[in-house]
Amino acid sequence: MRGCWIIAGLTLREAARKKVMWTALLAGLGFLALFATALHFQIQDLDARSTTAFIRYQILSAMLMVALYVVDLLAVVMSILTSVDTISGEIASGTIQAIATKPIPRWHALIGKWLGFAGMIAVFVALTFGGTIAVAYAMSGVAPDHAIVGGALVLLECLLALTITLTVGTWFSTITSGVIVIGLHGLAFMGGWLEQMSGFTQSARLATVGVVTSLIMPSEAIWRRAEFDMQTPLAAALPFSPFATVSIPSTAMMGYAVVYLVIALIVGMYHFHRRDL
Amino acid sequence: MSNLSLTVPRGSIFGYLGPNGAGKSTSIKMLLGLVKPSGGEAMLLGQPAGTVQVRRRIGFLPEHFRFYEWLTPAELLRLHGRLCGMSASQLNERVPRMLELVGLMPHRDKRVRDFSKGMMQRIGLAQALIHEPEIVFLDEPTSGLDPMGRRVVRDVIRAQRERGATVFLNSHLLSEVEVTCDNVAFLKGGEVVASRNLQAFNREAVSVTVEARNISPQLLAGLADRGVSASLEGERLSATVGSPDDLPELLRHLVCSGAQVYAFTPRQASLEELFVRIMGEDRGL
Predict the structure, then answer these.
(1) What is the span of the domain harbouring residue A105?
(2) What topology does CATH give the domain B205-268?
(3) pTM (2 d.p.)
């Protein structure tokens, strides 16, 4: 595993040296500042209107869920964009040749990159997701239920996006890989909404389409489960709102997502090991 | 590739020659495990080529050397050394020595992104040699280098032979190969069509141009009797002898037969001429 740790360290150092890490963190801080400003004005308005504590809590909770949804989206996009060029780009430029001829198994390079990016993404999620909850709690006293579970699920979704990006990158060019992974995420997004719709319209066939889409790419299902775990009981009871989880992805679906990630990583390792460079 | 079979003596510098598309880089990549052959097997140092065990004993400079340009040359060498399993203390000693060897010590604090093509070649050569491998594969190591850079690379290659390593050199610069290599193989259409020991090659046929007067028909007939092919154009005689050792006898025969010799210029066939002879003329353009 020596090669894995060397490449993981190199990946982190590259992210820091090329300012990728700092730019991502700056974007996260910018988002937190925007959220804090919006929350500040919302609290002022609620106070001015003497809103009841119950309604106040629901409105601020809804704001927090919107912010966490944006954090989730931001983190997934960061996971894809920062890692999409690492394998395919190095294969195209020939950079990988000098590494692949060193005395480490070739898959060590892939796992090393995965570990490096996973570490970076974990820091990003901890700071932005944790930061958003901390800002909301400090300013309004509102906190989501099961925040740790929610954060872990958001991280799982990001790691799934990272894994698929790296695996697809062992086959295709950077641009093609980006299109495929973003396309898959879009598919999952659409599937998630179809499943939501099915809960509202009681359409079994629509639900089937949604479930099949989630099986093809379970990323959006992971977010919907995180959202369900974190939202307030009132929001959960609302039948049709952007953040009401009408159709709740099961724990089995989360297990499926983990297995999906592991299999995707193994497929990527195998193909990277076998392919010509 | 088809029926590719090579024997490379240990501790020698081996030139791997052939026109573009002959399969030189592909076959090197197969030996390094970068490309999987559709059939057959390759052995390197007595073991199947491309395994981790074999890669520990080889170094490689790719034809188009690209690397993480955000690193400094010392960081780059440390990374490659660590990947080769070298310890921190070994690297502390080896990295400055390698930078000195390839002439990059004055540029040790620059980022690789600021390097010229020639400097990239030099750092690429250093990373291939950092762990003192038994076999070094160099794919076009002198392309993009100025004459001084070429000389540095030539000296480094010879130094590898002196420490007992085998150098496998793929190059289009035949003049470089001619002065550096001990053996060469010619590759065409994925097959080795000829190989030469360059020491023996230097003992092969020599053509000589003689500027002389009083060259009689009897003299020319005498040359034919001695097995020397010759042709006369005015006062210029062109002859070919079997080896450089035949030159004194040829000159003696000319003088003894009454020819007045003004110039006697032997000329060895170059590796380039041999290359063209083996490969055939390029019918492009």
Answers:
(1) 2-274
(2) Alpha-Beta Plaits (3.30.70)
(3) 0.84
Chain segment B199-223, per-residue pLDDT in tens: 776 666 678 889 988 888 888 888 8
Strand order, beta sheet including B260-268: B229-233, B236-241, B206-213, B260-268
Q: Count of A–B CB contacts within 8 Å?
A: 61
Beta carbons of A276 and B55 less than 8 Å apart? no
Distance from the Cα of A209 to chain B's closest Cα (Å) equals: 42
pLDDT tens digits, one per residue of A87-141? 999 999 989 999 999 999 999 999 999 999 999 999 999 999 999 999 999 998 8
pLDDT tens digit sequence for B145-170: 888 888 888 999 999 999 999 999 99
Nearest CA in chain A to B34: A277
Handedness of CA B177, B182, B188, B194 (dihedral sign): positive
Chain B residues within an 8 Å CB radius of A101: 32-34, 55, 58, 60
Question: What are the tokens at A227?
Answer: 């959202």
**pLDDT at A159 exceeding the cut of 90:** yes
Chain A positions in Cβ-Cβ contact with residue B52 (cut-off 8 Å): 103-105
| CA–CA distance, A91 with A96 (Å, rounded to integer) | 6
ipTM for the assembly: 0.81
Overall number of domains in chain A: 1
CA B20 from centre of chain: 16
Enumerate the domain spans of chain B: 13-198, 205-268
| Euclidean distance between CA atoms A71 and A79, whole angstroms | 12
**Within 10 A of B42 (CB to CB), how many other CB atoms are there?**
18
Partners of B64 on chain A (C-beta within 8 Å) are 94
